[in-house]
Records
---
Amino acid sequence: MADSNPRLVAVSNRVGPLSDEGQAGGLVVGLSDALKRRGGVWFGWSGETSKEGTQGEAKTEVQENVEMTTIDMSQEELQGFYYDYANRSLWPLLHYRLDLAEFDRVSDKVYRQVNHRFAVRLMPHLKENDLVWVHDYHFFYMGSELRQAGYKGRLGYFLHIPFCAPEVFSALPASHDIVRALLAYDVIGFQTDTDRCNFVSFCISELGGEKLDEDRVRVGDRTVIAKPFPIGIDAEGYARFAVSPEAGEHEEMLLSMTRDRRNSDGEGAERKLIVGVDRMDYSKGLLERFYGFERLLEDYPENCGSAIFLQVAPLSRSELDAYAELRDELERTAGHLNGRFATLDWTPLQMMTRGFTRKALAGIYRAARVCLVTPLRDGMNLVAKEFVAAQDPEDPGVLILSRFAGALDELKCGCIVVNPYNTDDVAAAMQRALTMPLEERKRRWEAMREAVFTGTAQRWCQSFIDMLETSHHEPAAQTSS
Ligand code: ADP
Ligand code: F6P
């Protein structure tokens, strides 16, 4: 007999904080918003390395109604599991960057070992009727490891990033092992229907599986539910952040920077702040965005002297070459652009790597006339939803969204869609957004607002849990990872 309100145990590499401290990353933001409402346990990595690694003591801290339990990794585990396998093999592969993906058997082994050890360490914390919900590409093998360790309860999994096309995924030496391991879960959630279809196609073409209906796929004797559950934000909460005093201070600071600017003809200018907020990651299309802004200044010179592009880009995974190179390239490109266009009283492009609280970020979004969310590939992109939630209903800004962002499915009702690889397209979209009449801005924003306030983090969490609770549950002896 199922418990009427079973305990939720979420597992992810990064854990918390639940507070408004501002850690960049959609998983932590989305899961915090969802867990705060529901309560439960959140298990994962402490963010620290120690000699004992995962053999060391687990630390437990209660924040609001969530029990956060974390363990350390050893330095070797951090390198092999997080940097090498998760972020040098899986991340580029799943974001269609085979040119950046590196595969080696040492990191493959460490990745499996860490999945095993985390599962073993989690076991004593689990109760019979728990709902275990594992998150993201760090823990593909966690479900099968938990089954092998004897866990018989319901097991769900959610992938926060894209699941690439089968012909790309099959380049990964362990692609079959990973998908077979995923079949240990009862429900496998994806951000979009495209991701789900890619996964199901892989099951069929590579593993001889069969699609039973819209949501179910069978491989051998395992039947699992594979379904899109687009992640959202706490939209009401975010809208409140946007009118907080802290947000107001940030908004005012930015408004005063742009308010009195004159355009190149010396005319008084409308507010012309363009913002981008992204972890500094090659999947985010930052360089392409800078080129688009440069093209805007070339092709629509009336923006010279008045438009300011603020890119907030907190550093991420800086130890990896691809990320360090991206930073150099962005700094070089920003320097070149400013050198070419800046005047004594106007710096067109400003990039900063600092972190902000969520309230401060909400103020930054609210000050912007335009937000650029132009990833080359992205699972969802919560920034797009935060921007919408933070807007002033009387004078909303315009969202420019990449056709390759997961958020497009829900926000195409009101955004301007661009191909981030097409510099002219991006520049033209910026010009259109900067000059869009108030009525059109309102109409578009209202449509997007509806989507963001409907598809919240809480709803994401609840619909996944509902599916997990009702899913047919037949724990199978799994083949080892
Ligand atoms: P990803 O998960 O790939 O980083 P998302 O857009 O889904 O992309 O999520 C990024 C999250 O990180 C958003 O909630 C955003 O507000 C937050 N964030 C981005 N930059 C900063 C920053 N400088 N300080 C604090 N939070 C940030
Ligand atoms: O949402 C995608 C995601 O990769 C999360 O899994 C991750 O926590 C976040 O972005 C930030 O990356 P990292 O944990 O490597 O700092």
Note: Residues 22, 24-26, 29, 277, 279, 312, 314, 355-356, 361, 380-383, 386 surround adenosine-5'-diphosphate (ligand 1) (CB under 6 Å).
---
Amino acid sequence: MKKYLALLLSMVLALSLLTACGGGDSAESEESADKVEVGIVLPTKDESRWIQDEASFTTALENAGFTSEVKYSMGSTATELSNVEDLVERGIKVLVLCSPDANAAGAAVQKAKEAGVTVICYDRLISGTDDVDYFVTFDSYEIGKAQGQYLLEKYAGKKDVPLYLYAGNAEDENSFLLFAGAWSVLSNAVKGGQFSIQNCPAVASFAGKELDIVKNRADLEKILRTINTKWNSDEAAKLAAANLKGKKKGDVAILAPNDETARSIAATFKADKDVKSYVITGQDADLASLKAIQESRQTMTIRKDTGELADVTCNMVKKILEGGKVETTSEYDNGVKKVPAVGAGFAVVDAANLPDLISEGVFSQDEIDDAK
Ligand code: BGC
């Protein structure tokens, strides 16, 4: 009797397991409706730059016929990790990741790699890990050079112009590249007496010298930490206000790393009665900064065509998914490996060429007027 009971029990168990599998099937098909091929994780929604990228991506990937989803990490490495875990569970084949913290994204990319996902660093290099496959980016070193060059030309022939330097976020590799690029053109002008640095003694001993992104890593980091805006407009304004105390003013030059920080640094300088005029750089062509350029509150910005960068990424994704060879044009050292990279172009925008860009339809005056 016991034997029959055991047999009966095992039959019931087997049946229940079978039903569970059947149930699993339908859960699986529900899940597959939710599957995505490409996961995109961006650093924050609080800056207009990344909203531009989301729009460009969605269009480019949809046009190419890929399913994709964009998620935001809102400046948090923990959210970044859970975003990546979620996308991995949903079966992504390619992860496009732009991290809020280049040194802390290792766990997220490791998760993706373990699941066989190809990892593309997007616009910001991820450091200290070999779990990254490619890098698509604007050339931040060259952008920094263009910012430095702009200040140089605006003050051509002048002597002892007070120069205020600001960096992005020391947790973002782009900040190193930007600053090193700007310094590559400002360095001799500082040595030759065209500019006198007001707020960054750490860089003074490099006048006339290059700051190499790899060889001078520790020096660069030290410099960046003293002029670190963390890409945040409030931090930038606070730093600028502190910097202006007891310093040389008059007609000044300001190296600001991007538009968000440029607008708030500019406002701080403008409010100081001893600042007669200023030339300030920027980056991203935020609509609010185009407005600031038209109102002479900001002097220049850099237009980075996020549509082009999204297309470049999309072509790479296509190659990866079709198993073709991915073409790259340069490489970036992330401390562990040289990451093969491909880029997109940029252009300087200021009051002189902005009217042309508006008449060509690149920007509309209405959207500039509406910018906050
Ligand atoms: C990007 C800039 C952006 C900044 C702050 C950098 O990595 O290259 O375009 O303004 O991050 O988000």
Note: The domain at 33-132+306-344 is CATH 3.40.50.2300 (Rossmann fold).
